[in-house]
Amino acid sequence: MNRVRRSLFTALSLSWLAAAAGAQEPAAAAPHVSVDAARDALAKGEAILIDIREPDEHAQGIAPEAQRLPLSQIQSRLGEIPKDSNKPVLLICRTQNRSGSLAKMLRAQGYAHVSYVDGGMKEWQQRGYATVAPR
Hints:
By secondary structure, the chain is an alpha/beta fold. The chain has six helices and five strands, in the order αβαβαβαβαβα. It is globular and about 35 Å long. It starts with a helix and ends in a 9-residue tail after the last helix. Mean pLDDT is about 85; it is low at about 25.
């Protein structure tokens, strides 16, 4: 998916979420975790990682523990994000822009345990952390 289409999907998905949350004022920034903290939490089984990039981006490699839930499909698959979880849900995208916006909107809808990974998959790969081909 090219950058323009991805931006359009992002804008539409985030607009839908904002409307669903009844957002009229911008919410405070969502909490974030470092790539190192995210990797450590995943290794210990203490977090759930959801990769919200689009399928063409997933093809470039995903974190081994990541669940794939493209932002363009959030509206129809929102139920796949645990609403009341004992484990933090960490959202990751390429750089953190989409995941940060989505985390903020989800928190406004009651997903208090959702954060985003600072630096995204770009930072993950720059640090040399493992990636796998999506299944």
